[in-house]
Amino acid sequence: MNVELLMMILPVALVGILLHALPVLSRREIFFGVTVPPRYLSSAEARRILLRYRVPVWVASLTALVMFWIGTSQHSAFLRSTGLLVPVCASFVAWAQAHKQVRPHAEPVSSVRVASLSPRDEPFPGGM
Q: Which helix (H) or strand (E) covers residue 100, if one does?
């Protein structure tokens, strides 16, 4: 196996892992950029939407690896240079579709706003 191909597997794998975990890295109330009830994430529909997001991400990551392999064997700089863009672009499209599917389950916006009227007792982070 070519050293150049091995050096490209690591970034593609890291991007794939990051994009795989991205929807669940935020607070439990936020799912694909939509504020949802916390119990929604454990529903069957949320798991289905998450799967519909993750499958294209991994297919695109495998496509990128194939592009790197072909680009390395054919000495094609275009295939090697655009290979990492494939999973990123596919994740944008998959994210937008998942966001559209989650929006009907969004919590209604509350008209109540809360603000503290007392000064902070905490010092500035890092000190003066």
A: helix 85-102
